[in-house]
């Protein structure tokens, strides 16, 4: 058995290194408080170029962006520009556009990735699992038959087959007009 450098005692396991996940684990770039001025990434992302922020599409009151820490390739977030925490805080125009963007996002994900299904939903509040509870965002997670395997359960690792910038390009090109 060949010794693996830098892993401690050799144990025969192959390792998939995901150093980009350390930022998520450490909570880097998380807001320091509940306000828009407290470093909210969903308030900052739309201020920059689409490619840099992984923005797939912009609307009047909402935008679609790739999740920086996706569950699956093509994991989209639909976010209002306005800094609100709860679905009930959206005005009628924002709620309608969020729904329309969710529909268009599903079409783009299916066209661009060949997804056979999707999970769509919101985690409202920290206790519900929201990573950034102060700014509402709807998840669209593409799914395929057999896309769950032993890696997340045994290895606490998710294998992503495509770079985020490449996924952003595919979904932007697949967005319905």
Write up what this structure looks like:
With 177 residues, the protein is an alpha+beta fold. The protein has one domain (41-171): HIT-like (HIT family, subunit A, 2-Layer Sandwich). The chain has 6 helices and 5 strands. It has helices at 21-26, 41-44, 50-53, 92-113, 150-155, 164-174; strands at residues 55-58, 62-66, 76-80, 117-121, 138-143. The protein has a 5-stranded antiparallel β-sheet with strand order 1-2-3-5-4. The model has no long low-confidence stretch (mean pLDDT 84).
Tags for this model:
alpha+beta, 177 residues, HIT family, subunit A, five-stranded antiparallel beta sheet, 6 helices
Instruction: Give the beta-strand count.
Output: 5
The neighbouring-strand order within the major sheet is 1-2-3-5-4
**Largest sheet features:** 5 strands, antiparallel
Structural class of the secondary elements?
alpha+beta
What is the CATH fold-level name?
Answer: HIT family, subunit A
Distance between the termini: 56 Å
Would you tell me the overall average pLDDT?
84
Q: Please, what is the CATH homologous superfamily?
A: HIT-like
In the CATH hierarchy, the architecture is 2-Layer Sandwich
Level-1 CATH class name: Alpha Beta
Order of helices and strands: HHHEEEHEEHH
Given as residue ranges, the uncertain stretches (5+ residues, pLDDT < 50) are none
Number of domains: 1
Radius of gyration over all CA atoms, rounded: 18 Å
Question: Strand percentage, roughly?
Answer: 5-15%
**What is the approximate shape?**
globular
Count every helix, treating DSSP H or I runs of 4 or more residues as helices: 6
Range of helix content: 25-40%
């Amino acid at each position: 058995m060949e010794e693996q450098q830098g892993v401690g005692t050799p144990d025969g396991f192959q390792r998939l290194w995901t150093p980009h996940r350390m930022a998520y684990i450490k909570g880097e770039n998380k807001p320091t408080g509940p306000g828009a001025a407290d470093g909210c990434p969903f308030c900052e992302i739309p201020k920059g170029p689409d490619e840099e922020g992984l923005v797939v599409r912009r609307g009047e009151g909402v935008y679609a962006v790739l999740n920086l820490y996706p569950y699956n390739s093509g994991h989209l977030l639909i976010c209002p520009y306005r800094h609100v925490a709860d679905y009930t805080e959206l005005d009628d125009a924002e709620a309608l556009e969020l729904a329309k963007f969710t529909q268009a996002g599903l079409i783009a994900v299916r066209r661009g990735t060949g997804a056979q299904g999707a999970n769509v939903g919101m985690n409202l509040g920290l206790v519900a699992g929201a990573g950034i509870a102060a700014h509402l965002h709807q998840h669209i997670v593409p799914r395929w038959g057999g896309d769950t395997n032993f890696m997340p359960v045994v290895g606490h690792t998710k294998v992503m087959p495509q770079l985020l910038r490449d996924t952003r390009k595919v979904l932007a090109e697949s967005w319905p007009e």
